[in-house]
Amino acid sequence: MSGLLDTARLVTLTGPAGVGKSVLARAVLEEHTARHDGTVVRVACWDGLADGGVTDALLRAAGLPDAATAREAARALALRTAHPCVSDRGRGRTGRRVGRGERPGRTEQGEQGERRERLGRTDRGEQPERSERSMAPTPAPPPGSAALKALTAHCRRHRLTLLLDDCDPVLDECAQLVRRLLRADPGLRIVATARRPLGLPEERVAAIAPLPVTLGEGIAGPAVELLATRTGPAAPELLVTVCQALEGSPLAIALAAHQLDRMSLPQLAVQVGVDGALFYSGPAATVRHTSLYAAHAAGYALCSPTDRRVWARLSVLPGDFDPWLAGCVCTSSDVPAAAVDGALERLRRASVVECVRDAGGAHPDTGVALPPRYRLPRAARDFGQAQLREAGEEAAARRRFRQACAALAAEAQITWQGPNQQVAVRLVEDEQHNLDAALTRPPQDAEDALGALEIAVSLWFHWAACGYRQEGRAHLDRLLLLSRDDTALRARALWLAGYLAAQEHATATAESLLDQAWRSAVMHADSDGLARIAHAHAVLALYRQDTATAVACLEEAARHHSRDPWFGPGPAHSWALLAIALAPHDPARAKTAAHHAWEARHSDGDFWLYSTILYAQALAERTHGDPAAALRACRKALVAKKLVGDPLFITGTRHMLTGLRRAARSGSGSAPPDPTPGEPWWQHRHPTGRDRKPDANGHRQAGDYAG
């Protein structure tokens, strides 16, 4: 901001409620004017504006007469310089007090006669004589232009910088005043603070963000330092926890610190993490800043009815979102779908909604233009939820949210079987917070529970192929208890829960779930379900090293003609797993199975299938004693697996690659020994034992372990 003040005539500080715009503006201006030998003239536009608006308040703050004072002075001057007949209004020539309807020196009858005579002259086309009132001087025009000229001259003479603080309730009036001031004196310097810009061409906008909580690993940020000044010595991890829950908002931190009079810091950390700080209160210079609720209520009152409804309904979204999801949640009979985008943009300009990704970027995998993504900060979201609950619309908005997430999950499932599986992976990553919330929030009724179960089933590839089996099992176990009706959707959920348990080598659980899925599939005459159950039993057989059973189950599943190509591994993957099962024993049949798998593929972008086939090829070449060919196939398999994060074989692939490199360097065709007798080595846990953890961007990583 200091740099902008040296070059710009108009600087506007924008930001959400409680971010510290006014405090920052006054602090920087005090330093700036002290360095340049100037003075700041401040007008608080939100609090205490008297009659006459911003212009009169600015004139009074600068020590100049305001418009009302100027009008009184002009009237007094007019009376002093008027004709003697009107210098003392209300007295006639004889000194008698004249009524409001009389003229001096005339009786009532005389007035009526003169009025008839004047009307007669007018009818005859003659001009009436001018009255004594018309001879009085014309009142002076409103002194707006003269006052502004006087103000600009005064600012130039005394090196004044104007600060229009909290312009939001009179934003248009402030913009017009600033435009006139800058036209009158291009050298004038003006600073404004508001939640949205003034919208003038010469305006330089400085968007003020909340304080960073950390500046890197182990380095406390300004938010933690601000809280520490109010708490005294405290555990750094507790300070970070509180500041993260408050999202670095200076007002929220100040209000939370004020609560330490009645609770300890650990208690505060727990409470703000669960409930937030919306209703914390404390002393402040203005009523708006006594609580976060009051600060947001002041901005909420300035919004249009449509923007208020959109704000409240967006509060059911736990993370960032795109305009499509916002439209699904906000559209109703009182908010048309076409109005949501405009409301989003207005809320963004008002610093209610944050834009976390601008429109116009290209998708890294497809090149398709990406829509913008928005986010509702924690305090604004909590305030919106309070308004939504008060309006009795929370249940309907949450239901629309879960329905929208079911549509997202279905789109991801179809995309997974399309030409580029990375698009499906990226879609789930982008909507991770929303999908997790739709799965974990308690359903409102049986229909809502089925909607949550549908989301879990549609994301089968995310659980089974991208490494989130434990999460998938947890969601399915909980939702299956809430959806006990024997439906086709429940049958799929039972199979998926059993398949995930089989992948994790939970044999007893997997067999119980697959038995229930088999009975349900028979009842619904679901031949696709029976084939998927056979595929899952083959996984269990491979864990038991029962190759014969695994081959029999996989051949049954592979020869099935699927009627639903979108759900489950499908025949192509059964052929690919069959190739892996046969590779150590019958490489020729394994190559044939791999060929059938590739011929049965849905698209060339099925990296999950492609990597599995390459792994089978590497396994067969290694068995034949050709480590160089096996090494090439293994490298390609690892590259393909990393594109989708398939954890079922990725650790085994790395292990095989290490052994093949060692064999290629030594010139030996021998295979690396199994690390643990009695267990398939390609299904071992990663040597470090690491589970999936968030990466640097907060996204969960898949493929660190298998089985």
Automatic annotation (TrEMBL):
InterPro entries: AAA+_ATPase, AAA_16, P-loop_NTPase. It comes from the Bacteria. Pfam families: AAA_16 (PF13191). Residues 99-133, 688-707 have a biased composition (Basic and acidic residues). Residues 85-146, 662-707 are annotated as: Disordered. Residues 7-221 form the AAA+ ATPase domain. PANTHER family: HTH-TYPE TRANSCRIPTIONAL REGULATOR RV0890C-RELATED, REGULATOR-RELATED. This is AAA family ATPase. It comes from Streptomyces siderophoricus. The lineage of its organism: Bacteria, Bacillati, Actinomycetota, Actinomycetes, Kitasatosporales.
